[in-house]
Amino acid sequence: MSDNRPIGIFDSGLGGLTVLKAVQELLPNESLVYFGDSGRTPYGTKSPETVLKYTFQDINFLLEHDVKMIVIACNTASACSLDAVLKQYTLPIVEVVGPGSRAAVRTSNTGRIGVIGTPATVASGVYERAIQAAAARLTPDQPATYLGKACPLFVPLVEEGWWDREVTALTVREYMKPLQEADVDTVVLGCTHYPLLQSAIQKEMGEGVTLVNSALEVAREVQAVLTERNIATGSDSTGSVSFFTSDSVEKFSELGSVFLGHPLENVTKIDIEAR
């Protein structure tokens, strides 16, 4: 039995394309509907109440496309809204915090783990709780030491397309100082925008520090849920992708094309506030 309905993915902007790319590569038969809320980005500086409102609007929009699963490709939305979302909706929900935390614990040799994220994500404490829980289960003989660092300028840099600029390198240097001083050996990119700055972050932290990009872990989680629920698309299907944005179609298409390595088609602007 197969289920050819699409998977819905949303983020506060371009960052969730890192998750979409990983899902596409792992599950090429699956069709995807992506919404990037660039018109209201960043979520990470908004109040938890506002993020919750945005999250419900984003999910309700994706449900208009008869999706079989929702992927919350936004750490801030996961941190502020997951409990409420799980109570409100019955279809499968995959988020980014748990997979990234488990990967960090498995990766770290010393247990010293840093997490960089938006102010809302770091303030929520969700990663600290998830990492401590994962360490207690996966590495009980090596407790985890957690250090969170908010990086509020990273999302605007990504949304502007300034992935490899001098101002980006200087901003990365300033934000990474506490993690370097704490001698972490693993850093979780706790926002799906941040992998677009991965080269600059890796250069600053050095090759001895492992960066955990949650996108691949999320794609594996999606695959596992599809199998468990028996809702994977048939193997004879060819996946399609539809893109939606709440801001400029031209800018979204231009920057998204650079990241994904091919022109973006089927990009539509929507008024998400009207949902």
Q: How would you portray this structure in words?
A:
The structure is a single chain. This protein has 275 residues and is an alpha/beta fold. It folds into two domains: 7-95 and 216-274, 3-Layer(aba) Sandwich (Rossmann fold); 97-214, Rossmann fold, CATH 3.40.50.1860. It has helices spanning 17-26, 48-63, 75-88, 97-107, 119-124, 126-138, 154-160, 166-181, 198-205, 214-229, 249-260, and strands spanning 7-11, 32-36, 69-72, 93-94, 112-117, 145-150, 186-189, 210-212, 241-245, 267-269. Strands 4-3-1-2-9-10 form a six-stranded parallel sheet, with helices on both faces. Strands 6-5-7-8 form a four-stranded parallel sheet, sandwiched between helices. Helix 1 (17-26) packs across helix 10 (214-229) and helix 2 crosses helix 3 (75-88).
Structure characteristics:
275 residues; alpha/beta; Rossmann fold; 6-stranded parallel sheet; 4-stranded parallel sheet
Task: Give the structure's gist in a few sentences.
By secondary structure, this protein is α/β, with parallel strands linked by helices. It contains eleven helices and ten strands.
* Low-pLDDT windows of residues: none
- Tell me the domain tally: 2
Bulk shape: globular
Radius of gyration: 18 Å
Second rung of CATH, namely the architecture of the largest domain: 3-Layer(aba) Sandwich
SSE order, as H and E? EHEHEHEHEHHEHHEHEHEHE
Give the helices and strands, then pairings.
Layout: E1 7-11, H1 17-26, E2 32-36, H2 48-63, E3 69-72, H3 75-88, E4 93-94, H4 97-107, E5 112-117, H5 119-124, H6 126-138, E6 145-150, H7 154-160, H8 166-181, E7 186-189, H9 198-205, E8 210-212, H10 214-229, E9 241-245, H11 249-260, E10 267-269
Parallel strand pairs: 1-2, 1-3, 2-9, 3-4, 5-6, 5-7, 7-8, 9-10
Helix pairs in contact: 1-10, 2-3, 4-6, 4-10, 8-9
